Amino acid sequence: MATEGKGYMWERRQRGDPLPNSGPSSDYTIGTSAGWFMAVTAVNGESPRIAVLTSPTINQSSPTCRLHLHYFIWDSGYTMLENSPLWAEVWTPEGQPSVVWRPENTSVRSWRKGTVFLGRIPGPFQIHIHSRRQDGRSGDVAIDQLEFMDCALPATESCGNGHFQCKQGGCVEERAVCDGTDDCGDRTDEENCDGFMSCDFEKDLCGWDLRSLSSLVWNRTSQMHISNSEPLRGPGRDHSSNSASGHFLYVTKPNVLKKDWASFQSPRLKPTNSSHPCRMVMYTHQFGGISGGLSVLVAEKQIYPVWERGGSLGDLWVKAEIEFVVNSTFQILFVAAIRDQAYGGIAVDDISLSPECRLSNESVRPEKFPKPPKKPCAEASKICDFNKDCPEGDDEAQCGDFSYKQGSKGWTDISVGSQSWKIMENASSAEVFLYVGESAGQQLTEAQTRTPPLGPSGLACTLKFSYSLTGSNQHIGEVSVIVVDSVLGTLPRLWEFGGRTGVNEAESWVNEEVYIGARDRRFQLEFRARALNPHSDARIAVKDVHFVECNPQYIPSTIDGLSCNFETDFCGWYQDQMDNYDWSVQNGLDHTIGKGKSLAVNMWNSTLRGLSGRLLSLSQNSLDEHCLSFFYKLYGPQTGALNVKLLFKDGSEQLLWTRFGAHGNVWQEGHCPVPQQMSSYQLVFEAVRSGFDGQVAIDDVAFVKGSCSLPTMCSFEGQRCGYTNNRDSLWVHQTWDGTRIGPKTDHSLETEMGYYMLAHSGVDVLPQGSVTTLISPVRYGVTHTECVYFWYNMGGHNPGTLHVYVKPVDGERILIYSSDLNQEHDWHLGMGSVSWHGDWQLQFVVEGGGGKHTYIAIDDISFSTNSCPNTDKVCDLERGLCGWSNTQSHHLDHLDWELSNLLSETHYPTPPYDHTLHNERGHFLFLPHTLWDSATQNAWLLSPYLPPTKGTCLYFWVYQPVASDSKLVVWTLSKGAKTELLSITWAEETWQHFQLNVTSETDYQIVFEGFKGTKGVLALDDFGYTVGLNCAGEQTNQTTPTSSNNSGVIAASVVVAILLMVTLAVILFLYLRIREHNRSQTRDSVDHVDNPGFGNDLYEPAHIVLPPIYGQENEREVA
Questions:
Q1: Mean pLDDT, residues 512-518 taken together
Q2: Coil/strand/helix, residue 705
Q3: Which stretches does the entry tag as region Disordered (predicted)?
Q4: Which residues pair with 1029 in a beta bridge?
Q5: What is the phi/psi pair of residue 188, to 5°?
Q6: Is the residue at 1003 inside a domain?
């Protein structure tokens, strides 16, 4: 393929890392960031520009030829889509280009399926795919996975009964002879047609009369006369020659008209009978919103309809056959309904009357005219909205629900192929059902029938029906249910069945229920089906169609609140029907009981496409502050993200909480404050597929009134997690925008979009010696020592000092960490043990140092249930990562090292045991082989910053069997420069020990860089370092460590020891007895709740709580 354009062109590309703010979140074919697709470049011009993608030359195509593709149109920059951001044309050497495909130009961040009906093209041609935009971001128009279908001419074979032999050797059905289409490919099926009254409208009207009883009239025209520059105007081509120069009859809406109808009629025809009926073949093009439908009527003594097709059928010419048996002179009357919409119209071409249709000289004088349609009893938006607005319920009577006498008539066949849906009414049994039968259409596509626009629908909305696929063959065909959204278009199938339900239709009906759910926009339901052999005794049928509990105001009585452990149902939560995929029930290894149920999205599922899967709560109307608590799992080498959002009635959203990247194969506890809201809202759990190899899961959700206690982890993305200033406003919640003082990137995302808390410490804001304090919510005491982890960044000359305190609710504060060193704008890890067992708050105190334009920033605060690790001891991974972390920068790696053990692992290959405990419960870090095409992608594991050294020993254990083709490289990283220490391409079938001497003249980090292979696994365990002591056990000379003051840890321990020695056991016992009473009073005074909610009250947290290990950047824009 070739591309054209001046500054705006198509290019082959991947999504890349991180998740971009424009274009698809993945390709369509394989559904990952590694997949390729074609997309446009960015454009910003004074006038629209056109990018053209040109196919190779194709020799010819058959009448059934079509091109399937997936396309993407998204206005990520909100610059507005032009009328034609995407369309396709056919170019031939000798003719004008003809438009063959024009998809809806709605903006959706999702891949959609399109079909280009090419039709019969007798000579060489090329397909040009155009995009026209004036202002747009890169990748916002894209295509992928193109596939040609049924494009070959009939193969040479001997013809059976009912078929016609073509000169070139192929066979076509006899009904295709003299039908105005070159089905043979050599036109032999259209040669001997002298007895037919055929009109292709190339020279004249052939006796057809275009006079109309309305002010709107049909015109004989061609696409060249309508427009050569505006793709949305006209049918794009005629049927006869499949070109822009060919003529046809056409009607559309003039600019000044709202809606109307137009008619034309045939010459007068003689009476016919059932033995010799008059047969008419024609081709119609009903495209766009303007097309309200086309009807064919007989005008004799009375006027009555004999054929109709409603609405738009797509961007193609559709063949129709009509048989007339009329016992008096008559005329054929065409009537088109035109609607007040933006584009489209109705065209008719290649009308052919069989020899039995004979001209008559007698006049036609109708004595009885059809009654005008009944005026609707309700406005259009209230028709088929699952609520009876009219006295007799007429507004719901023809919506597709068989509960109503006319309900079956609500289904409208929109088939364009050789099979279509029909209605069977059995007078003897009063049974009505839909079935698939043969049709005149040429395309080898599914039969389709749709309801009128429905809804909006309610939470419990369900479609009930019975179906049967019967016949003598083992496989009859397929039937499915699809939703067509008014904005998103055709959505993935809700339900499908293929095969056979039985031999005899009377005994082979199967009852089915399909969940429709809550949908805020109007939508249509569609049955699709295709029989493999329609000429046999195969029958596909549907009956007893009912819409159950679809009223949007209906809420099942079984729903009681949002607190839920998902063991029996979803409680007050439900799947968002407008997202890309659903949350699924996960059995086993849940948080509640270990063997129960949780909800999960498996990012490794190869069938997932699109960016997000969302779980919505029922609407909440409370004006009070609430706390949403839950347990979650983010697990895998490329797992994506989990967001919590507020969704308002106007469609706007607010991010409250987010986590991303690898957090280990363990359940983590999340607390999300929900601020007071003046209007109703819904809560949203959103799994974001920014990564493609991991799992996102939730369990034990609780939603209670009141504020949250201090969360176990806060990245400051979305909100401040309840952290407040102490009587000043020197702490700000910010990102870097190029002009502000502060780090250019946060620590969580390592992007300019990431948030952190920052204190301005410049002398003009915070004089030397003055302080400003960031205060956490209350954290309730526990009986064991905890560790608080945080990342801090100091910028400028003399930025000041950072002090971190534990402030008991009743008592003097205790220093646990202090640092006054300029870290040169790098993020550094700080930690401090908390041994206070009463309720307390965390205080970050910044003391001014007298510098100018300086700052101190804080990010990624988290707590573990264990005391802080001793960095001079081995990290056995049984209590977390000991200060080591995955990198967040996509410039450095693509994957994450993941923490797990053999007992918990059900998806990835692992070592048979860990090195520390030598059993299935012991933990390790690993980088597994998976099915995703991410071989050779890397993952970095970084140590905390270490001081300059003339000899520090690094030791670690590696599991890398011979069968694995992964790779491990060990580096030191200092001021952006890497120094390789060791490269391992394979080890042994058991854990292998390595020791390395490390030297560095500056502060540095140790990096374990793993490269994923195509097979096997790479794992680490029991790693550590001895600062200032080499691997021979010798003390080395080194510069003074750039240490931070952790004397507060010792002070806290001394204070606690004295208290324990002084306090008698009896007093301690009494204290524990009355502790709950005192705590409840404390809660009232500070307006907090203790471990709020269903899940956290009944179940203990996970045994391992890790410091933050983030990976993938989160995208907030959702389709």
A1: 95
A2: strand
A3: 1-25
A4: 1035
A5: -65, -25
A6: yes
